[in-house]
Amino acid sequence: MYVVTLLTNPASPALNLTTVDALRSAWGGGDLKWLALGEAAEFMVESVPSNQWDVWQGLQTQGIDMIVLPAEGRRKKMLLADMDSTMIQQECIDELADVAGVGERVKEITAKAMNGELDFEGALLERVGLLKGLPESVIQQVIDTRVTFMPGGKELVATMKRDGAYCALVSGGFTAFTGYVAETLGFDENRANTLLVENGTLVGKPGLPILGRAAKVQALEEISERLGIPHSDVIAVGDGANDLGMLKLAGAGVALHAKPSVAAECDIRINHGDLSALLYVQGYAKSDFADV
């Protein structure tokens, strides 16, 4: 059996009974269950519909995301999450660059790297090089004035941890930011690159080795082995090309507001919902979310 989950942006719910019930009837689905009225609903089907992606495309124009997943093993025992543009709404290196006055150049490189058009390591070295000479204090300035959390993230981490899951934050960004984000949201551990500092200023180089796509896969493999769980018990979420390895290896790989080239390679594509979508696809109703 498979579960069809329909969801929208919680800030502007777009689901209505007519749309949901029409699809349920067309696909011969089971009983309709509202996970959050107007926001998320699900029903069971016996097999993956052959026109899944045609229907998905049509629903996208209505602001609705649709996910079809096996009913068995929906609840995961581990969350592996990217940070920039995933758990937070910014790309930290872009924010640092903006303060340094080289924002547009760095944003251009970031966009190409996240879309898989540039080698991640080379792009990181080039961007960090443009930050040379910035005072170290600018990191805290960006945290205090520019970093905002993706909606649904606190509920996602708190709910999964309440139910015994392990939560790891793994980023191609920097420990100066992942440490703050991990502590604030309640992640069990975090992994990222380091920004080298000398005499209170950024030297324009990251610490080596650089954590990129392979390191995210390695994190999934190492942590799941340590926990004694299979990869199928992991739900991973990210938006960039360097996330694809872990998204494909995880039992549920979620492309969240991802670059088109990334979303195209993932079966779980969240373009309208927020991080609460990761709870809905696991079968949680909104009333099941942990209080935060």
TrEMBL record:
CDD domains: HAD_PSP. One of its GO terms (cellular component) is cytoplasm. The active site is at residues 82, 84. It catalyses: O-phospho-D-serine + H2O = D-serine + phosphate; O-phospho-L-serine + H2O = L-serine + phosphate. InterPro entries: HAD-like_SerB (IPR050582), HAD-like_sf (IPR036412), HAD_sf (IPR023214), PSP (IPR004469). It comes from the Bacteria. Keywords: Amino-acid biosynthesis, Hydrolase, Magnesium, Metal-binding, Serine biosynthesis. Its cofactor is Mg(2+). Pfam families: HAD. Pathway: Amino-acid biosynthesis; L-serine biosynthesis; L-serine from 3-phospho-D-glycerate: step 3/3. Its EC number is 3.1.3.3. GO terms for molecular function: L-phosphoserine phosphatase activity; magnesium ion binding. One of its GO terms (biological process) is L-serine biosynthetic process. Belongs to the HAD-like hydrolase superfamily. SerB family. PANTHER family: PHOSPHOSERINE PHOSPHATASE. This is Phosphoserine phosphatase. It comes from Celeribacter persicus.
